Amino acid sequence: MLRIEDLHATVAEKPILNGLTLSVPAGEVHAIMGPNGAGKSTLAYVLGGRPGYEVTGGSVTLDGTDLLAQEPHERAAAGLFLGFQYPVEIPGVSSMQFIRESVNAQRRARGEAELSGAEFIRLAKAEAGELGMDVDMLKRPVNVGFSGGEKKRAEMVQMGIMRPKFAVLDETDSGLDIDALRIVGAGINRIMRAPDKGVLLITHYQRLLDYVQPDRVHVLTAGQITRSGGPELAHELERGGYAEVA
User: Fold this and answer.
1) Domain-by-domain residue ranges, the chain?
2) Strand, coil or helix: what is 133?
3) What does residue 110 show for φ and ψ, rounded to 5 degrees?
4) Superfamily of segment(s) 2-245
5) How many CB atoms lie within 10 A of CB 230?
6) Which UniProt keywords apply (predicted)?
């Protein structure tokens, strides 16, 4: 599904990713853990196509299609979803409006019929309910005045409506209390656990992996994958830190 080969990338001409190679097959959830400054968020932004993150070598394909040759909106239409560590606020634009425009833009790009207003509202209510979120919150401007947990739940509602093929989730556990962590973890499993989907879950801590059991765990240090293993690797990191395991 997602295949990254010898990926090199710079930010402000500073090398951050230094030959990163990683494969995530369809039907699997892979977790990436690593110290601050290792390149975890840079990897997420490179996959999403954020401006300012320059790829200087290597390749990335999603289901055999060259991801790096596509613009960010084309990557989204192809089924890539990027969850942010710090979801941005967009004053003046309601979450309902933002998500509906986003999902219909993707449907148009794929030659699919757009969701009507009634269809979208039914879907938004169902997804918000699954995540324990009052759908009226989606009438507010995107993330404005939301707590950390509310921002992450709103992002999960968006993912649930869009139903992407592959999700890159950058520290989705950031700012979540225990209850929100459980709800968001269940949301990831419900939306993305399928034979034709995949997830790259970027996190600092084991706690999210108690709710979203990964198939593989990878250690990212200095812009490279330095070790990979099963879910037990995350517990080793919790006990001994990165210096002991990488």
Assistant:
1) 2-245
2) coil
3) -95, 5
4) P-loop containing nucleotide triphosphate hydrolases (3.40.50.300)
5) 11
6) ATP-binding, Nucleotide-binding
